[in-house]
């Protein structure tokens, strides 16, 4: 069985042939630095590490390439397909990749093609280690070994079908951040600029370097430009293996040609490239070394691209002169439409391929690679510079990106800021001069306004949830491609939300407290600040576990609603039924409300009311007479900390980029 983290692991360190650091003559990655990041499996095989650098007469210090083959053997993927028959839900096992085996050698460019839904993406996911192990059988090897998740991240980059770029950054900024996540402080600013300029140049993005990627607020790059930027981001790390899912979709033919030519260039430096592609032009087709044709999860051909036309010709499917071989081969195996006159039965073709000499040859290559060939080779080709202080550099660059994103994305911060200020001014004006009134009705106004502040202002944090869910896709891609760790992501988000929330709390407090004449500006500010921090932490956690933001909003609203109900205002704590009293204690709203109430009522010595002659009497009525504000706000903060831990755990375990 193919496992998520192969147990027969070895340490693979990426060495560079053209990394800027090495060009400058600074130390490249070493076995010891690599091991500091490694897991136990890695450490066990550390001893087998050999670096094999050599002096290249033309390029300076380069790696002498002894790269590995990517091998997969008898890989099948089975999913539970849900359908409806006569109104009844039916679950059925569906094989979407069936016993696929293959080998791509270093320096080869493999193109996987097939009609829509034939299993190309699934196959690529398997090679990239992005498929849940419960769905998989078969084995994937690199250098004769199964690799752990971390090792895979170090040697391969995966450009997925969907672009998950952040809309508020320009092309140059996007690449600069990606380079920093790959290299940290190991490259200087000048080296970083060289890397970024080179990447933009290669993907034809130089003329749009200052254009925003774009999002729902602003139109930015075109679809094809986004595609090229996604590729450039991943190629920045010079990975040993590059897997790309439809890199040319949305590109014009000239751009497609240029992109594949760039990938071809990588293979000349002994990198391995596997790509799925629809409709390659004849010029693009000519650049493929290997070609794999799939249909309905079956492999119909895996061999040289040059030999494909001849192979199918011998089966009676002769490609007409002047016809693009790729178009012809796809048309004969597309069973979705009736238009095509020449049509093959995919199952028949699959059986024929399995019994062909081509398949026997591939199997033999796989076996010889696994038993001898690659087995003795211990190092990979990718020129990735080890990051110095990875946690610190990840934290700093993530924080910088977060702060910029918060400032630039109106939905994340500024819309909420305006709403908070507007609402708080409304509260201030609605309860204008309340502090000078000590009638019985002023008690009601005080409790109601404080409950509104404690409940509704906190509830408004839900507004940030869609952006968390949206950004999660970027996190998953960057994490799966080994750019940074979830812990750096969580810590940087926490620190970056502090200034914005403090500003909102300050302006909101300054709008309510002086106008309404409420007591204790400092405590009010502290209670609002800590509560908003915790509420946002909760929203981060809910956003991380919700499959869609609408579900997340419903979930966060429900949680807020429950905590409001049991906080002790709508029903006093002593009246809450025993079987629900736990809700009163596990909701952070309880502790923030107590702080707001105690802050307001404890200094008031007199009310014109026989039932509540003083602030203390009001507090006694709500079971809040013995509040210690510092203590209660610490509890509120601890809830926030707990939510942050849950957020981190959820990112760590649920968002590994596996499907
Ligand atoms: N988790 C899943 N559950 C059910 N069916 C799935 C699942 N994942 C993939 N499939 C199905 O498996 C088939 C292959 O999907 P895949 O995305 O690999 O195709 P593809 O060749 O990449 O298609 P396209 O070219 O349109 O991107 C499709 O029919 C898809 O609906």
UniProtKB/TrEMBL annotation:
Pfam families: ABC2_membrane, ABC2_membrane_7, ABC_tran
Compositional bias per record (Polar residues), positions renumbered to this chain: 1-11
Membrane-spanning segments: 413-434, 449-469, 490-515, 521-542, 549-573, 634-654
Disordered: annotated segments: 1-62
A GO CC term attached to the entry: membrane
InterPro entries xrefs: AAA+_ATPase, ABC2_TM, ABC_transporter-like_ATP-bd, ABC_transporter-like_CS, ABCG_dom, P-loop_NTPase, Plant_ABCG
Membrane topology: Multi-pass membrane protein
The keyword Isomerase is assigned to this record: no
MF annotations from Gene Ontology: ABC-type transporter activity; ATP binding; ATP hydrolysis activity
ABC transporter domain segment(s): 77-321
Transmembrane helix in keyword set: yes
Keywords: ATP-binding, Membrane, Nucleotide-binding, Transmembrane, Transmembrane helix, Transport
Localization annotation: Membrane
Family according to the record: Belongs to the ABC transporter superfamily. ABCG family. Eye pigment precursor importer (TC 3.A.1.204) subfamily.
Name of the protein described by the UniProt record: ABC transporter G family member 11
Species name: Hondaea fermentalgiana
């Amino acid at each position: 069985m193919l496992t998520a983290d192969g147990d027969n692991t070895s340490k693979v360190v990426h060495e560079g042939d053209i990394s800027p650091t090495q060009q400058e003559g600074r130390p490249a990655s070493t076995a010891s630095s690599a091991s500091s990041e490694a897991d136990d499996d890695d450490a066990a095989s550390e001893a087998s590490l050999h670096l094999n650098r050599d002096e290249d007469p033309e390029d300076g210090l380069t790696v002498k390439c002894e790269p590995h083959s990517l091998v997969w053997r008898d890989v099948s993927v089975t999913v539970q397909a849900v359908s409806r028959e006569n109104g009844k839900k039916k679950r059925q096992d569906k094989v979407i990749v069936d016993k696929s085996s293959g080998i791509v050698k270093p320096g080869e460019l493999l193109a996987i093609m097939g009609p829509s839904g034939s299993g190309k993406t699934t196959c690529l996911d398997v090679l990239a280690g992005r498929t849940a192990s419960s769905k998989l059988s078969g084995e994937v090897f690199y250098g004769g070994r199964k690799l752990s998740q971390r090792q895979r991240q170090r040697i391969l980059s995966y450009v997925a079908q969907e672009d998950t770029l952040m809309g508020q950054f320009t092309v140059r900024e996007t690449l600069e951040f990606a380079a920093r996540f790959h290299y940290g402080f190991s490259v200087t600013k000048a080296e970083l600029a060289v890397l970024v300029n080179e990447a933009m140049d290669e993907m034809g993005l130089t003329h749009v370097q200052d254009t925003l990627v774009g999002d729902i607020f602003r139109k930015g790059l075109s679809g094809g430009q986004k595609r090229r930027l996604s590729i450039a981001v991943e190629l920045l790390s010079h990975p040993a293996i590059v897997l790309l899912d439809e890199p040319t979709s949305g590109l014009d033919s000239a751009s497609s040609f240029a992109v594949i030519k760039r990938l071809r260039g990588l293979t000349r430096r002994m990198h391995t490239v596997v790509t799925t592609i629809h409709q390659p032009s004849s010029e693009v087709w000519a650049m493929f070394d290997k070609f794999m044709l799939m249909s309905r999860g079956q492999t119909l051909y895996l061999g040289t691209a040059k030999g494909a036309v001849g192979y199918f010709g011998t089966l009676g499917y002769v490609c007409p002169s002047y016809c693009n071989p790729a178009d012809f081969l796809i048309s004969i195996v597309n069973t979705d439409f009736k238009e095509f006159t020449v049509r093959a039965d995919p199952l028949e073709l699959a059986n024929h391929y399995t019994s062909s000499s081509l398949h026997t040859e591939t199997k033999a290559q796989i076996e010889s690679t696994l038993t001898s060939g690659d087995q003795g080779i211990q190092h990979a080709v990718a020129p990735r510079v080890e990051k110095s202080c990875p946690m610190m550099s990840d934290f700093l660059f993530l924080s910088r990106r977060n702060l910029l994103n918060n400032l630039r994305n109106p939905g994340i911060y500024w819309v909420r800021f305006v709403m908070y200020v507007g609402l708080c001014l409304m509260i201030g004006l609605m309860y204008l001069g309340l502090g000078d009134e000590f009638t019985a009705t002023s008690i009601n106004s005080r409790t109601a306004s404080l409950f509104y502040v404690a409940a509704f202002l906190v509830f408004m944090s839900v507004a940030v949830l869609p952006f968390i869910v949206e950004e999660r896709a970027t996190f998953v891609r960057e994490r799966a491609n080994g750019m940074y760790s979830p812990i750096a992501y969580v810590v940087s988000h926490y620190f970056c939300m502090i200034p914005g929330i403090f500003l909102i709390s300050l302006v909101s407090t300054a709008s309510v407290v002086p106008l309404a004449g409420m007591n204790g500006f400092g405590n009010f500010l502290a209670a609002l600040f800590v509560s908003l921090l915790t509420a946002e932490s909760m929203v981060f956690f809910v956003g991380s576990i919700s499959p869609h933001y609408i579900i997340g909003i419903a979930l966060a609203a429900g949680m807020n609603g429950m905590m409001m109900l049991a906080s002790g205002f709508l029903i006093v704590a002593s009246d809450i039924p025993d079987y629900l009293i736990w809700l009163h204690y596990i909701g952070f709203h309880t502790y923030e409300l107590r702080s707001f109430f105690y802050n307001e009522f404890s200094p008031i010595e007199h009310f014109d009311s026989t039932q509540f002659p003083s602030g203390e009497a009001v507090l006694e009525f709500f079971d809040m007479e013995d509040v210690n504000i510092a203590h209660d706000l610490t509890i509120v903060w601890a809830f926030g900390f707990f939510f942050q831990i849950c957020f981190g755990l959820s990112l760590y375990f649920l968002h590994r980029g596996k499907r």
